Task: inverse folding
C-alpha cells in the first residue's frame, strides 16, 4: 500500500505549492481535485497546463492514483444531469491524458441523492452510472463511486447492490471508511465488504455517530488507523490510502491546509509503521 493526500482540502492553494509540500513530507501520491472552485479546476486545465502538471508530478516523484471529479448523478433536471455527465466524461479524458505506465488514475465521484431515495430512485441511479461506465469501458478509465453518509449510497450493502446491478468492469469503489464509521459500522465489516471492490480510498478522522458526529484531521479523533490498515492488508488491498480533509475542517477559522497536510502525514506514516506495513 501507499500513502496519498487529496487536494480536496486545498482548494485555494496553487498546485505547485501543493505538490512540492506533499513530496517534501514524503507522501507517495496525490489525488488532484478538479471541481470548479479549485486551483486545478477542470476549466483551468488547458493542454499546456495539463502537460505542466504531469511534468510537475513526475519531477517530484508523486504518483496520481485518482482524480476527484465529483458530480451529482441524481439530478432530477435532465439538462443538469447531461451537463454533469459531460463534465465527468471530460474528467475521464484528463485521466487518460495523465495515465502512467500502470494505467490512468481513477475518477472519484459521489452519487448524490438521499438515503430515502433508495427504493424509488435506485433504477435511475443504476442507469446513470451505466451511462458513465460505457465511456469508462471505451477509454479504460475506472469510475470510483464513493458511498457517503447522507447520500443514496450510504452503506456497504447498498454499494454492493449498485455494483451488482451496474455490472461494469469500469466501476469500482472509492472506499472512504469514515462515512461508515460515523454510522456505527465496524472496521472489519466495512473493510470485508468494500476492500475487494476498492480501487481507491479516503481516510479522515471523526468523532461521534449520526446524527451527532464531526469529521476531523487524522490524529484528532477516535479512528484506529493501525487496525484499519491491517484489515485492508488482510483483505488484499494493495493501493493508495489517501487522506481527505473534510469541509467541516476547512470551515475552521483559521484553517492552514499545508500545516494540516503535515499533521496528517505524521499521523498516517506512524500508523503504517505501527502496523508493520511497508509502503511500496
Result:
Amino acid at each position: 500500500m501507499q500513502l496519498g493526500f487529496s487536494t480536496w482540502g486545498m482548494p485555494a492553494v496553487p498546485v505547485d505549492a501543493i505538490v512540492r509540500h506533499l513530496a517534501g513530507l514524503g507522501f507517495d501520491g496525490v489525488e488532484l481535485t478538479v471541481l470548479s472552485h479549485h486551483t486545478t479546476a477542470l476549466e483551468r486545465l488547458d493542454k499546456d497546463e495539463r502537460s505542466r502538471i504531469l511534468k510537475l508530478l513526475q519531477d517530484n516523484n508523486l504518483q496520481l492514483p485518482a482524480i476527484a471529479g465529483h458530480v451529482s448523478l441524481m439530478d432530477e433536471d435532465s439538462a443538469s444531469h447531461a451537463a454533469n455527465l459531460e463534465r465527468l466524461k471530460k474528467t475521464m479524458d484528463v485521466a487518460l491524458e495523465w495515465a502512467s505506465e500502470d494505467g490512468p488514475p481513477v475518477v472519484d465521484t459521489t452519487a448524490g441523492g438521499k438515503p430515502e431515495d433508495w427504493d424509488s430512485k435506485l433504477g435511475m441511479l443504476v442507469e446513470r452510472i451505466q451511462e458513465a461506465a460505457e465511456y469508462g469501458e471505451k477509454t479504460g478509465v475506472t469510475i470510483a463511486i464513493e458511498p457517503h453518509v447522507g447520500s443514496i449510497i450510504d452503506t456497504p450493502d447498498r454499494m454492493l447492490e449498485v455494483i451488482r446491478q451496474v455490472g461494469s468492469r469500469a466501476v469500482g469503489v472509492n472506499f472512504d471508511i469514515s462515512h461508515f464509521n460515523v454510522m456505527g459500522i465496524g472496521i472489519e465489516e466495512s473493510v470485508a465488504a468494500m476492500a475487494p471492490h476498492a480501487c481507491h480510498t479516503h481516510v479522515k478522522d471523526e468523532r461521534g455517530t449520526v446524527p451527532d458526529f464531526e469529521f476531523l484531521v487524522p490524529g484528532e479523533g477516535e479512528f484506529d488507523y493501525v487496525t484499519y490498515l491491517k484489515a485492508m492488508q488482510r483483505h488484499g488491498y494493495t493501493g493508495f490510502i489517501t487522506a481527505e480533509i473534510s469541509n467541516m475542517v476547512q470551515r475552521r477559522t483559521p484553517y492552514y491546509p499545508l500545516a494540516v497536510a503535515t499533521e496528517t502525514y505524521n499521523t498516517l506514516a506512524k500508523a503504517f509503521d505501527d502496523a508493520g506495513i511497508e509502503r511500496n
